[in-house]
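Hi V.,

You were right to ask for the full record rather than a summary. Here it is.
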Amino acid sequence: MSVYRDESPATWLDHLKAALLYPLPHHAISRITHWAVRVETPWFKNLLIKTFIRVFKVDMSEALEEDPTAYPTFNAFFTRALKPEARPMPDDPDAILSPADGTISQMGPIEGDTIFQAKAHDFTTAELLGGDEALAEEFRDGWFATIYLSPRDYHRVHMPMSGTLRKMIHVPGRLFSVAPFTVRTVPKLFARNERVACIFDTEHGPMAVVLVGAINVGSIETVWAGEVTPPAGNHVTLTDGKHRPLHLPRAAELGRFNMGSTVVVLTANQLPASDTATAQPIRMAHHIGTFSNSHG
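Predicted structure:
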């Protein structure tokens, strides 16, 4: 089965950088960013876009709109569409696709109800899914993949396999950075940050695609609900998909990050079988596993 574990130990510099994040007003900073990246003033948004392209070496030849100045705001550029041929799908119809551009930071079995985050750090499926123990039980001894999106990556999130939306769970929380140094140092990071868990029913059982927010990522969107965050309040919000059934085919757009973050994919106990796991950068639609006929 697909397995990759990065057990690199945290360094003193990792701990120092993470310590500086704790006292910051994460949501206030993210609200300012939310405003700034939507400014339409041409000189301002063009300066932001061109500086970003230069610093992060963004490949605009893949973009549906290659002209940086054509985007009305920085956010429109950041969530830009790609040319249809930019992310070809594998021929295998049973292949599980990477939902996003990025890097696989961890991938492998869910050990009971425990998901590996980094050396000395893990969290449970229930914690990730907003405390829903019954839902978490569906993923017991299943499989997970954690994909980190860097600033230069394409920031739309797509379906790893075809599925019908069952429900969406918005879980409020902190907005720590999700860079590798915080993954190695902040306990239960992905179960502490604000996140949107999208639960689908598929031919291989339940699947969760969890969009995890981060500092400057105060806004997550889905194709069926629009902008989900940032709402007011501190309570888990559940949206039932049964009243408006939505089926999304494999590789269809699911949502997007307005600034970068992490996606965690969970599947049930039908275990993907593949040896293609890698810590190298991957692209959306990259083959990250193939379902076998076994059931755990």
